[in-house]
């Protein structure tokens, strides 16, 4: 560890689909530096979406070299990594990939998903669907029977950094891990999942090892640096906002509408598209709608949107009751593949049409929070909001009224910052244990 006279610093690494972003923060969680390296987008062929895992590691090496140039990196104490949820690869016994990774949105494992639906319990909502990492794992075991290990995106980087190819509660949820018992469930054997392929799992924010010599050499460091269990990219983004109290919620107003809330109880309701992650002794419950700001992009160019926003008047509701989907089917707040979009009748004024869409998106958001509240996850009043939709101030005021919440636009939203906070959390926890004279 760095000398106690030198304030420790922390690195968070975020793996995406087209790039790696990383940041360095200090002991007070102040952002010191952020860097990003782009890499080739995944190869897409119909429902198949895949990527070479070695691309990820090359990008991580590059961002670490860049961050190592900052003087404060010399007091680095811990690193944590997040990756895209449900991105999976298989390796041999030496952790060498046997095939390209199947990305989070790869949908080729539809037959395997059907098998899972007949065996997995309903409270394991996250494993359902062709894109779950469990469906992908079954596909891999059929196509590559010589496979020895299954790894998520973050797991692979953990191993490269520390020689410990281990995972975390959040990344493993969609592969069947039960965060309530903190174990792999017995029903996985009914799917003929080889137990030896499943990774060892840690709670996010706990120390899982130390950086290996090659990683330390990369950073030009001589002292030990901890590796802390990370999470998925979306949860790291949630943590980045500063939401950390029971009842705190985050809505992402991006292409799709995603809401999450810190709950004292786990909520799993497949029929409503709700499932829960365990994080910091609480539960992060929520879901993702197929509706979102992508609908706006279909009808309006950015310049036109800005012009129409000035004409919005939420004091005069349109009463049109839109349900703005781009295509048939909804995931949340109801899991209904036959849900129809409703964007008619279209008023003559474009500003009224835009307002009706925004009213519809807000109604979906409210229904989602109402469903969560009925099941025990009640909002505290703090609603952190991220995504492109936050630029529309009139919409933000309308949401605040309809949701009866304080809308907060957070300073930080990048997932790498959330991962850096997890690295800091893991380090602080071990320091506390050491102070109390306990063995780590």
Structural overview:
- The chain is built from twelve helices and 19 strands.
- The protein has helices at residues 53-67, 110-119, 133-143, 153-162, 169-172, 213-219, 233-240, 294-299, 302-309, 350-374, 393-403, 415-435, and strands at 9-15, 19-25, 31-38, 43-45, 48-51, 76-83, 88-91, 101-102, 149-152, 167-168, 201-202, 207-210, 226-232, 249-253, 257-263, 275-279, 282-288, 382-386, 406-408.
- Helix 10 runs parallel beside helix 11.
- The longest helix has 25 residues, at 350-374.
The low-confidence parts are none
Number of helices: 12
CATH superfamily of the largest domain: ATPase, nucleotide binding domain
> How many structural domains in the coordinates?
2
Number of strands: 19
Q: What is the spatial order of strands in the main beta sheet?
A: 3-2-1-6-13-12
Kindly report the average pLDDT value.
94
Sheet-strand content, in percent, reads 15-25%
CATH class bucket of the largest domain: Alpha Beta
In CATH terms, what is the architecture of the largest domain?
2-Layer Sandwich
Distance between the termini: 14 Å
Derived structural class: alpha/beta
Rounded to the nearest angstrom, the radius of gyration is 22 Å
> Globular, elongated, flat, extended or rod-shaped: what is the shape?
globular
What does the largest sheet look like?
Answer: 6 strands, mixed
CATH topology of the largest domain: Nucleotidyltransferase, domain 5
